What we know:
Layout: H1 3-39, E1 42-51, E2 56-65, H2 72-78, E3 82-85, E4 88-100, H3 108-120
Antiparallel strand pairs: 1-2, 1-4, 3-4
Amino acid sequence: xxxxxxxxxxxxxxxxxxxxxxxxxxxxxxxxxxxxxxxxxxxxxxxxxxxxxxxxxxxxxxxxxxxxxxxxxxxxxxxxxxxxxxxxxxxxxxxxxxxxxxxxxxxxxxxxxxxxxxxxx
Length: 121
């Protein structure tokens, strides 16, 4: 076997090994992302709601199970929650929109109220 033939075999193995390494890295990163989502079994939600009397408020709820996140808006209405605002109990009349705590509302009035409540502390 000549040296030229040995070099050709090694050169063919390098791209193959490179492809295998890239394939392995892509699969492990995909699995890591999947596991990260599974560990986050609860989320923090904020809901823009109308209370009896016609005023609006942001109702914040922490550690909501991920399974209940999609139906949380209906659950909140069915519980007839008495939410607290300015040390007064308010009965939720209608839930307009719920979002995760770090996301913005689609409703402009809800965003304005959310921002003002965050600024107040």
